[in-house]
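Render this sequence as a predicted structure.
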Amino acid sequence: MQASRPLPLYQHGEFAEGLYPDLPWFLDDLRPQGYLGRAFVRRHATDLNAPADLNRWQAEDVVTALLRQGADLPGDLVLGDLALEAALLDALFDSPDKLIPADLREFDYPALAEQAEAGDAVGSSAGGEQPKFTAVLETTSRERQCVIVKFARHNPENAAARRWVNLLGCEHLANKVLREHGLETATTRIIDHAGWRFLESTRFDRTAQHGRRGLVSLRALDAAYAGNDPGDWLASADSLLNQGILGTDDAENIRKLHLFGRFIGNTDMHSGNLSFLVDPDRLQVRLAPVYDMLPMHYRPSAGGEIHERPLTPPMALGDVQRWRWAADAASDFWNAVAGDDRIGPAFRAIARQNLQRIGSGQARFG
């Protein structure tokens, strides 16, 4: 890679000369992946002369996709003139058929969810397996609001559907509680309309003035500079802290967030579910707003079965002050779930049970 100015993060350590053994690590998050990635492949694989099976894609396939269809990907990187021209046109000229008036979003979202369920790639790329689409809203002040929208059907006869509806509500409440306890999270809202539940999350890699922010996942950053287990947030944070890539405050916030996740039963804290904002002129990154923080312990199985097993809260090992912070935040979370009528009665009962179990630990260690 040649650059007109130093790029400390991208050309660090063994990559100081701008040479990479395969796809440059900072492009790895841009490859099609997850729910929307598979929809992208169904739509574009033939035109790109790429395999129909995403697991068979090589670096060459990814680069071809980025060059030809990479105008609106996570973060601020755009590869090649064709994608750059499309990105600039998008920033300069709002397409009337693309913008959704913010006060009418609930009327448009059901059709977008049905398109996504049918396998169409709705909007730009975003990782993760939860069904979702992306959209661009126009606010009353004529600004853009770029959003990622997860969705689930309200189906009283289907236990798995009911559970996913509840889990989307839990994700919204977890964000609210974490903000109250001093952490920055994605801004979310719950919309129930026409038999659907939508969890709308404002994209923090976009600005209202058509701008973009650099973003990189812990998965890509750790793979480049540390090589830890993809499920070990704490080891990754320590490695990046020791190299000066991560600051002390952010490392501590990751430890607190990880402990909170254990308290609420987030069994899906892999390295793709934590990201960092990137300043190209600095080596050090900044922890991005929290997202995908919810009690995945309670997600339905692949066969649609659900369970109501209570959680086993983590014990107060190591830093007791951190444990108390996480226990207090988790108690507030389960209390919020138990008192929210957007959550079904059976899951509110689960919340009360978990609240009691955390309270027992607080009585002993608090």
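Summary. The domain at 94-204 is CATH 3.30.200 (Phosphorylase Kinase; domain 1). The CA atoms of residues 76 and 232 lie 26 Å apart.
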